[in-house]
Amino acid sequence: MLHVSLRHALSGFSLDVDFTAPAGVTALFGRSGSGKTTVVNAVAGLLKPHEGRVAINGGDLVDTARRIWVPPHKRRVGYVFQEGRLFPHLTVRQNLTYGRWFSGAARDAAEFDRVVSLLGIGGLLGRHPGALSGGEKQRVAIGRALLSRPRLLLMDEPLAALDEARKSEILPYLERIRDEEDVPILYVSHSIAEVARLATTVVVLEGGQVVRAGPAAEILSDPEAVPAFGVRQAGSVLTGRVVRHHPDDLTEVAVSAGSLFLPGWLAEPDTVIRIRIEAQDVMLARSRPQDISALNILPATVSALRRGQGPGVVVQLQAGEDRILARITRRSADALGLEPGTLCFAITKTVSVAPVDIGTPG
Amino acid sequence: MAPMDWLGPAEWNALALSLRVSFWATLVSLPPGILVAHALARGNFPGRQLLNGIVHLPLILPPVVTGYLLLLTFGTRGPIGGFLSETFGIVFAFRWTGAALAAGVMAFPLMVRAIRLSIEAVDPKLEQAGATLGASRLWVFLTVTLPLILPGIIAGSILAFAKAMGEFGATITFVSNIPGQTQTVPSAIYAFLQVPGGESSALRLVVISVAVAMTALLVSELVATRVARRIGGR
């Protein structure tokens, strides 16, 4: 459990945040300039906040009121930087073991092998960072941070410098770390797809303030948080279980309100997965549509509406135990007479769910 | 004709002394050189510009002035020289150690400059990464900064060595020109040129000087590219 409470002023910008990060992945979401990196640097000890307190499991790292300051090298906080920051003069193996020289931990070959195979970097050990691709560098950087036996893992946009292919290469590894390692992660991102896929808790920063914080499924499907995420990116996260792969190359996934059909082979039957559906890909109908090409039709109840300044309305629906966000025009909302409690059907096309939007639940 | 016969004993003495003086001048000024370069590159303290000025002083002062100042402070009756000779028996005046001191002081700015540039080229973000992995500032310096500035250290050392080999003004002012004691190659060339018939000896030493300088330069290039390739990591 990480507790952060900070006040810090930079030129033309002031930060005032207070949040708690429980076990799992806590995503610190916000646009550039919202203060995400400042928060992470204060947790790592690379920045001295003017005022505030940072504590891990009750142990203080910073407390300006009591003049407590733990220097960065004594914090045992692993930091994965956006640019990797591998040591160019050391081999991959030496980079990975660098933190162990100082953590005081005995040389644990089993632990080393476990992390190396978790990240799939066994073939790179003898190389120097200069000979690695961007994705490989980032995996080594993650392994280096993990092997320093951190009490907390900080990741500052670890995928931002990579192209889409490399991102989807690394995301499964991050999910494995979240699911298999017993270390809380503070994950900075301005990509809602990454947040939706990885986060268990979401903290939304705007202009140096926390505007929303809570469990990921709840915050992502909160119509009031849509402006912070951006109307084109906003979407809800559903948890489902793979039923089977059909011969016509569709995977059937059971969610609480019914079945969804997603393209391609996703996972073995009974695997629990996480699916993100963007609000702008959801259509609404008052009656169950017949003769329609879209395969995914879930019965739902309107639970909230948020009218913005433009022509759009964000509708929050309760579909079984899951929540779905739909972004439709105000005209349509009025024509359908939508208000909280209205029964309707949420429709999405199969292809609207991109592979990057499918992950494992944390 | 073997080189032994080609050089006379006086010329040999001068060459051997020059090499010894330059070697020790470089070796002893290396640790303070790295320390000062680091302080100038990364430090943020009030007297930084003053330190920078003092380090560069021998580069801009006339060498004779530097030599005289050394005589005043490190001479047997000088404040530092007197203390050192009385308590530790270390004497600089008119000894080869004095020649090494003069050469070291004259070469110091060149060495600091080369190392400082290489420290400034090291990304501080790598040093931050080292800190988050549990390395204290000293360990970060030893395991990250120092290996990365090795080419700069080598370049600075060779530059300092070459400068020490050629130092004349401060040396002759501080420790005079005593054959076998303080007569380095430049002093010997100067002395040979003062006596009739000394031109041939002087000329041989000139050839030696050029050869030593060229060798030093080639070796430094070779080592620097090797180290750079290793650090660049392929």
From TrEMBL, chain A:
Gene3D superfamilies found in the cross-reference section: 2.40.50.100, P-loop containing nucleotide triphosphate hydrolases
Transmembrane helix as UniProt keyword: no
Similarity comment: family membership: Belongs to the ABC transporter superfamily.
One GO CC term, this protein: membrane
Keyword field: ATP-binding, Cell inner membrane, Cell membrane, Membrane, Molybdenum, Nucleotide-binding, Translocase, Transport
Protein name: Molybdenum ABC transporter ATP-binding protein
SUPFAM superfamilies: MOP-like, P-loop containing nucleoside triphosphate hydrolases
Origin: domain of life: Bacteria
Domain named Mop: residues: 291-357
Organism for this UniProt entry: Stappia taiwanensis
Residues in ABC transporter domain copies: 1-232
GO MF annotation, one: ABC-type transporter activity
